[in-house]
Write a structure and sequence with these properties.
Elements lengths: L1 H6 L9 H32 L5 H26 L4 H22 L31 E3 L5 E2 L10 E2 L1 E3 L5 H8 L10 H4 L2 H11 L3 H15 L7 H35 L7 H19 L6 H27 L4 H8 L2 H20 L28 H27 L7
Antiparallel strand pairs: 1-4, 2-3
Length: about 425
């Protein structure tokens, strides 16, 4: 991609079909590599930490992705201001080298085996092995004989302690000691909860993909002294604000998720209600804001919500569908924004085009900036209709998040255990 950028176009006005096809392939490979690396990192992290700390650690890994836009833009502005070619080279080298290094050093760390001790409870009773669980045992001299009644699945033991070991049944118990689900493949596609998660994920993506166009429309509103460089600075500021909010949201939602699960015994899906509420508030603020200098408030709030959404969902996917096939299931879930993101982006694009002036000279007498020939210059009127629609859509996402929380609570009848 850097080489194509450096060479430019053959005719000076457009690129050839071959170059365009190559650019599409490069973009596809970029997305493929980014998602493969992220899925591998999340999978390794989730399998290396216990359930009570999983949301925090996974969201910590995701937070780096949220901050990447801010870091790259800052480094580029300091080291290579205005040099797009150097920026593309920096991206190519740092992303590939970091992935290669991770390939050599990142490995899942096996969790310690879970032991179910058989000890005297002080009242003559014993702790028994749960019904239906078959595990190997190791001899422990200081434990008395366990008396067991006839007719159930418990087995009399003489000085033994159950331990998850290496036999076939033991391996099965070790991988799912708490009877966690294992839903994947065709079974996943027939599960209503999968479509519930995907729908929530696809409904709140429009603003983040088009914040640059929104900031440009506000900046250009009735401004006869339009400066393209100044406009690009406002766009960059919105992207940086969004990136920092994204980072904060991913980091905070993991802490909140673990706190709600461990301290208050609430389902992790409650986090979806928090995130959806932030989306609703951010869209409402964006509708009312008419100055580009105040747009950062809505952008920051939406960044936190967007980061919270992607930070909360991995552990919800684990709780609902299991850990064994996390990379596969998470890959399917992340396809959801393809639908919502493109539909709402097209909707906003049509809205901008409908309000774009046919002749720029009507608004800028004697001046015709090339970059504004198809740019809407009417401020919030350019996009407010689309934002009203996405506000209603985010309210639907909030309702679905509430329903997801109810469903999650029903499958955990013992107070979160």
């Amino acid at each position: 991609m850097k080489r194509m950028y450096d060479e430019g176009t053959d005719s000076g006005t457009s690129i050839s079909p071959a170059h365009f096809a190559l650019l599409v392939i490069c973009g596809f490979l970029t997305g493929l590599g980014a998602n493969a690396g992220l899925a591998s990192a999340v999978n390794s992290t989730a399998k290396s930490f216990p359930e009570w700390a999983r949301a925090t650690t996974v969201s910590l890994v995701f937070s780096g992705l949220g901050l990447s836009a801010f870091l790259y833009s800052t480094v580029t502005n300091i080291l290579f201001p205005g040099d797009t070619s150097a920026f593309l080279l920096l991206l190519a080298l740092t992303t590939s080298v970091s992935a290669l290094v991770a390939l050599l050093v990142v490995r899942p760390v096996p969790l310690p085996p879970i032991r179910l001790d058989l000890r005297n409870d002080g009242h003559g009773g014993r702790e028994h092995i749960p019904r239906g669980r078959t595990t190997p045992f190791t001899v422990v001299p200081d434990i008395d004989t366990v008396s067991v009644t006839e007719g159930d699945s418990r087995t009399p033991l003489l000085g033994v302690r159950p331990e998850y070991g290496s036999s076939s049944e033991g391996t099965r118990s070790r991988s799912k000691p708490d009877n966690s689900p294992d839903i994947h493949g065709s079974m996943l596609w027939s599960t209503p909860d999968f479509y519930l998660v995907c729908t929530i994920m696809s409904l709140c993506i429009m603003y983040i993909n088009n914040v640059g166009s929104i900031s440009l429309a506000l900046f250009a509103e009735s401004n006869p002294n339009y400066d393209e460089i100044e406009a690009s600075k406002w766009q960059a500021a919105q992207v940086s604000t969004l990136s920092v909010g994204n980072f904060a949201g991913r980091l905070l939602i993991g802490l909140i998720s673990d706190l709600m699960r461990n301290q208050f015994r609430l389902p992790r899906a409650c986090c979806l209600c928090i995130v959806s509420s932030l989306f609703v508030v951010s869209q409402a603020l964006a509708i009312e804001i008419s100055s580009v200098s105040k747009l950062w408030v809505a952008t920051a709030l939406l960044g936190v919500a967007y980061g919270g959404l992607f930070g909360a969902l991995p552990t919800i996917v684990i709780d609902w569908f299991g850990l064994a096939h996390l990379s596969e299931n998470w890959g399917y879930v992340t396809l959801a924004p393809l639908i919502g993101g493109n539909v709402f982006s097209i909707m906003l694009g049509r809205d901008l085009d409908a309000h774009a002036p046919r002749e720029v000279t009507d608004l800028f007498p004697g001046i015709k900036p090339v970059s504004l020939e198809r740019q809407c210059l009417m401020g919030r009127e350019c996009y407010v209709t689309s934002l009203r629609i996405t506000l209603m859509v985010c309210m639907v996402a909030l309702a679905l998040s509430t329903w997801a929380t109810i469903r999650d609570g029903r499958r955990r009848p013992e107070g979160g255990r």
